[in-house]
Design brief:
The chain is mostly helical and 131 residues long. It contains 3 helices and no strands. Helix 1 runs parallel beside helix 3. The chain is rod-shaped and about 70 Å long.
């Protein structure tokens, strides 16, 4: 006789849902990394070229300067973070609606996304008001 290593459907279903949930978490965390990179790059460009301009006493040239470029990068990072968080929350709601009997824990990634989003807004305000 051979021992069967198959799992009952409820366990297999629970594991599949957990893998799906974790895939959604990883996707949001990847968006958080991307948004953080955009926000920090935008602020770095703004500060670096601001210091460079102050040290050389050169007048600003061109239609878009470091302030505008930095603000644009920060804005794109914030927008990407907001859209990714909204998509993640919709995905989690769909999982909970489809498999309500199985407990799906709350996402810690959304808390991190909110904190990074608030930091991005603070930096955007700092760039726009030249702090």
């Amino acid at each position: 006789m051979t021992a069967s290593h198959e799992q009952d459907p409820s366990t297999a279903t629970k594991l599949a849902i957990e893998r799906t949930r974790l895939a959604h978490e990883r996707t949001l965390m990847a968006w958080i990394r991307t948004a953080t990179s955009l926000i920090s790059f935008g602020f770095t460009v703004y500060k670096f070229f601001g210091y460079l301009r102050e040290s050389q006493s050169a007048p600003p040239s061109g239609p878009i300067g470091p302030r505008e470029f930095g603000g644009l990068m920060i804005g794109i990072g914030i927008a990407a973070l907001i859209l990714a968080t909204i998509d993640h929350r919709h995905s989690m709601r769909a999982l909970r609606a489809d498999y309500g009997a199985i407990i799906i824990p709350r996402s810690l990634s959304t808390i991190v996304a909110a904190l990074i989003g608030m930091l991005g807004i603070v930096l955007l305000v700092a760039v726009l008001f030249r702090m």
